[in-house]
UniProtKB/TrEMBL annotation:
NCBIfam families with a match to the protein in the record: tyrS
Organism: Leucobacter ruminantium
InterPro entries: aa-tRNA-synth_I_CS, aa-tRNA-synth_Ic, Rossmann-like_a/b/a_fold, S4_RNA-bd_sf, SYY-like_C, Tyr-tRNA-ligase, Tyr-tRNA-ligase_bac-type, Tyr-tRNA-ligase_bac_1
Entry protein name: Tyrosine--tRNA ligase
Chain sites annotated for binding L-tyrosine: 57, 192, 196
Residue numbers covered by motif 'KMSKS' region: 252-256
Coiled coil: none
Binding residues for ATP: 255
Name of the encoding gene: tyrS
GO biological process: tyrosyl-tRNA aminoacylation
GO cellular component: cytosol
Length: 440
């Protein structure tokens, strides 16, 4: 029944999504939301978006077992075009995932075929959650391994490779960066742009696909496809490059200590996900609302006013965190994250939290290993709340130590079975805001 409920909620989330009819064209809305960094002919694209339904695509390579926030930008762009009546293809690259597009600094580690195949399945499931599978423009999932696997190296070089000029390929940003690095670039990664261009050609042939979207750092790969279609088929195709989302200080968005904010709840808990959005800076939050939510222009402009006049209320951040966490993880997970945030600081009942929300919250805290019979002062030392047992005893004597939001009164207090929430977790607090988790 839980699975059925999740499917129904996902359908309700999709059904509630709308483009904003206060804009004259979809292109106008995409520009206002900051979703267009670079594109092929703007006038032709705007006309195409307002015309008859057409097929478009974005590719996602299985170089990890989950999509991340950078991919979410593309999924939401695909969804906005689908809401306009156009027909999305979600490509998960079973072949390009075996190679990986060039990174700026070093060669990728190649994953096994079995691993890539498993990740293809996982990413296809994620892509399908953000796009409607109903109606005449239902999303269709495709895998580029289907058309590259039967192709021999000789056929590939004769039929596709002959259309690419090495001088042009060398000028692509990702390639140029690697050529100037100590690592250099292998022929494997150098050839990636040909494979992506071939994908667009095949999708044009099979589905009449006319548009590809991707991050602006993929622009060279996107135009490889439009150029190939022009050379081979004599037809015009289009590309949209979305901006790389950065914070106001210029740092890359979606990264924390080098780790992406993943869409898979096992890799990034709903609590961690919620907190990420809640902690967006005032300088960034309005841009995030534009890109990552379906709130209308009027609603977002009202939040912009609130940020300017009452920033201390953090109303925009709270709405952003609620909207995006609900979009990705569902309303129950979003509410669980909110409840956990409140309960950690004594404004709610920790014992009432579901295990997933509690585990996610504790995962963000300094932690100590312990269980029934563990001395609270020792746990405080182990978790870094105090530097010594003596300091821990003094903190207890001063009335500033709590286990699961209940004040500790005895210096020799140990954890009892009833302190272990869901049989294995406890929360220590010193003062109002210094927290640590205990995991048995």
């Amino acid at each position: 029944m839980a699975g059925v409920s999740a499917v129904n909620e996902r359908a309700e989330i999709l059904a509630a999504q709308r483009n904003d009819d206060s804009f004259e064209t979809l292109w106008d809305e995409l520009e206002w939301r900051g979703l267009i960094h670079v594109s092929t002919d703007q006038g032709a694209l705007s006309e195409l978006l307002e015309g008859e339904p057409f097929t478009y695509y974005c590719g996602f390579d299985p170089t990890a077992p989950s999509l991340h926030l950078g991919n979410l930008v593309q999924l939401l762009l695909l969804r906005r075009l689908q809401l306009k009546g156009h027909k999305p293809l979600g490509l998960v690259g079973g072949s390009t995932g075996l190679i990986g597009d060039p990174r700026p600094t070093a060669e990728r580690t190649l994953n096994s075929r079995d691993t890539v195949a498993e990740w293809v399945t996982r990413l296809q499931g994620q892509v399908s959650r953000f796009l409607s599978s109903e109606g005449d423009n239902a999303v269709r999932l495709v895998n580029n391994l289907d058309w590259t696997a039967p192709l021999s190296a000789i056929d590939f070089l004769r039929e596709i490779g002959k259309h690419f000029r090495v001088g042009t390929m060398l000028k692509k940003d990702a390639v140029a960066a690697r050529l100037n690095s100590e690592e250099g670039i292998s022929y494997t990664e150098f050839s990636y742009q040909i494979l992506q261009g071939y994908d667009f050609l095949e999708l044009y042939r099979q589905y009449g696909c006319l548009l590809q979207s991707g991050g602006s750092d993929q622009w060279g790969n996107l135009t490889s496809g439009t150029d190939l279609i022009r050379k081979v088929e004599g037809r015009s195709a289009h590309a949209i490059g979305t901006p790389l989302i950065t914070n106001a200080d210029g740092t890359k968005f979606g990264k924390s200590e080098g780790n992406a904010i993943w869409l898979d709840p096992e890799m990034c808990s709903p609590y961690t996900f919620y907190q990420f959005w809640l902690n967006q800076a005032d300088a960034d939050v309005i841009a995030r609302l534009k890109v990552f939510t379906f709130l209308s222009r009027a609603e977002i402009e009202d939040y912009e006013r609130q940020v300017a006049e009452e920033p201390f209320k953090r109303a925009a951040q709270k709405r952003l965190a609620l909207e995006v966490t609900t979009l990705v993880h569902g309303s129950a997970a979003a509410q669980g994250a909110i409840d956990a945030s409140e309960a950690l600081f004594g404004r709610g009942d920790l014992a009432a939290l579901d295990e997933v929300s509690l585990r996610g919250a504790i995962g963000e805290l300094p932690r100590a290993a312990g269980g029934e019979g563990s001395l609270v002062t020792q746990l405080m030392v182990d978790a870094g709340l105090v530097k010594s047992l003596g300091e821990g005893r003094r903190a207890i004597a001063q009335g500033g130590v709590y286990v699961n939001n209940v004040a500790v009164e005895a210096e020799d207090r140990v954890l009892g079975a009833s302190d272990l929430l869901h049989g294995r977790y406890a929360v220590l607090r010193r003062g109002k805001k210094t927290l640590a988790g205990v995991t048995a």
